[in-house]
Design a protein that fits this description.
Length: about 200
C-alpha cells in the first residue's frame, strides 16, 4: 500500500508537519502501510528520517553510503542517524530470529561477521533453494542482485565485482543483526554471544 505524501498544492505534507504531530502519528503507523520509495515494496524495518520520509532501514542505509541526503526531499541525514535510527512501531526490538520449517535461515557476510537477511528476502531465497534453482534474482535495497545458490554468493547485477558470501545456517547461530540493523544495542542481545 502506498502512502499519501502530497497536499493539494503539491507540497510534502509529512515534511511540513510539526515534530509534535509526527511523534503522535508515529504510534499509529504500521510499516505495512508505507511503500519504500527506494525498493518500491512495503517497508521492512520502517525508518523515519528527521524530515519525515519513511524507508526500509536497509534501503536508506544503502542510499546514505553514497549520499547523506533524503532521496525524496534532499534534507541532510544526520551523521549518526544510521547508528541510532528512528524506527516506526518499535521495530528496533523486533529483529526476530525466524527460520524455515527445519530451523534454518539465510545469512550474508558483512565486513565484521554474518547478517541475517530480512524475512521477505530470506523467504524468496529459500523458495529458490527448495526448487533447486541455481540462481535467483532479487531486488534488495534498491539494487538487483543475483543470488548464486551453487557458489553461495550474492552479486550486484550492475557491478558483478561487488560480491559477498551467503549461507543457509541454523537460526540460532550468532550474527551481527538483521538486514543491516545491529542487534548490539537491543535488549534481547544479552542472549547473543556475538553482540
Amino acid at each position: 500500500m502506498s502512502q499519501q505524501r502530497e497536499t493539494s498544492n503539491g507540497t510534502d505534507s509529512t515534511a511540513s508537519s510539526t515534530a509534535g504531530a509526527q511523534e503522535s502519528a508515529t504510534s499509529s503507523w504500521n510499516s505495512d502501510d508505507f511503500e519504500c520509495p527506494v525498493c518500491l515494496q512495503s517497508s521492512l524495518y520502517a525508518t523515519r528520517l528527521p524530515c519525515g520520509h519513511v524507508f526500509c532501514f536497509l534501503c536508506i542505509k544503502g542510499v546514505a553510503v553514497h549520499d547523506r541526503r533524503c532521496p525524496m526531499c534532499r534534507s541532510a541525514i544526520p551523521p549518526h542517524f544510521l547508528d541510532h535510527p528512528k524506527m516506526i512501531d518499535g521495530h528496533q526490538y523486533n529483529c526476530a530470529r525466524r527460520g524455515t520449517m527445519d530451523g534454518y535461515q539465510w545469512y550474508y557476510e558483512g565486513l565484521n561477521g554474518w547478517w541475517q537477511y530480512d524475512d521477505r528476502t530470506s523467504r524468496a531465497i529459500e523458495a529458490s533453494f527448495q526448487r533447486d534453482d541455481k540462481v535467483c534474482v532479487l531486488h534488495i535495497s534498491g539494487q538487483e542482485y543475483a543470488i548464486d545458490l551453487e557458489q553461495m554468493m550474492q552479486a550486484r547485477l550492475s557491478d558483478p565485482m561487488r560480491r559477498r558470501r551467503i549461507k543457509r545456517d541454523l537460526v540460532t547461530i550468532p550474527n551481527k543483526g538483521v538486514a543491516g540493523l545491529s542487534i548490539q544495542d537491543h535488549p534481547s542481545s544479552a542472549n547473543n554471544t556475538n553482540a
